[in-house]
Design brief:
This protein has 209 residues and is an alpha/beta fold. A three-stranded parallel sheet has the order 1-2-3. Strands 4-5-6 form a three-stranded parallel sheet, with helices on both faces. The two termini are 34 Å apart.
């Protein structure tokens, strides 16, 4: 699970992933030495044990307000799909959804009460074609998998995505329904097992039979 470590939904999503035994990655708007918001420093440390922190800035706090929106494109790029849980009519989450659409990734939105300001953005996304999300099953369906296919292990799904011709890690992760960071870790394991071969440009191919 990838999110931005912000207050509210982001923090809850990171904690939920960890409590469920999964991994979670936070994309920070500033450097790793300046966790934002500061009161999530403990959560950031917990993510380092199972998941990680990502930043494109060497150090220091976010230099300007636009940095938060700029960071959202990385959240969209690292996820196989983007789920917007709450969003006002003008919200950074909508920028993440727009970035995901430009990348050709699935976008889902959770509907809310019609009189809540934080439902306006999600309802606008659904009107614009985002898939309605009521649970994890909707996310799996948006990723294109059947129940039988998703019952396979992540290793099996990633192995099935490998071809003789090299494919980029983004394409492999999307095909297997995995986050990019998770796919990279599994690809290394497949490489060590002699199943996958790494080629330049963050691309991988299947080992010839």
């Amino acid at each position: 699970m990838v999110s931005g470590l912000a207050r509210g939904i982001d923090g809850a999503a990171h904690r939920g992933a960890l409590e469920a035994g999964g991994a979670s990655v936070a994309v920070l708007p500033g450097g790793l030495d300046a966790v934002t918001p500061r009161h999530h420093a403990g959560l950031a440390e917990a993510l380092c044990a199972r998941g990680g922190l990502v930043s494109e800035r060497a150090s220091g706090p976010p230099p300007f307000r636009g940095t938060f929106l700029d960071r959202n494109r990385l959240i969209a790029a690292l996820g196989a799909a983007t789920v917007v849980v709450e969003a006002a009519a003008r919200s950074g989450a909508l920028a993440t959804a727009a970035a995901a659409r430009r990348l050709g990734r699935p976008v889902l939105a959770v509907p809310g009460d019609v009189d809540r300001e934080t439902s306006r953005g999600t309802h606008a996304l659904i009107r614009a074609g985002a898939a309605l999300c009521e649970g994890a099953g909707d996310v799996l369906r948006a990723l294109g998998g059947t129940r039988g296919a998703r019952a396979e292990s992540p290793h099996e799904r990633l192995r099935a995505a490998l071809r003789v011709e090299p494919r980029g890690v983004d394409a492999l992760a999307a095909h297997a329904g995995l986050a990019v960071d998770e796919a990279l870790g599994l690809l290394l394991e497949l490489e060590w097992a002699g199943i996958a071969v790494r080629v330049p440009g963050q691309r991988w191919r299947r080992t010839p039979a």
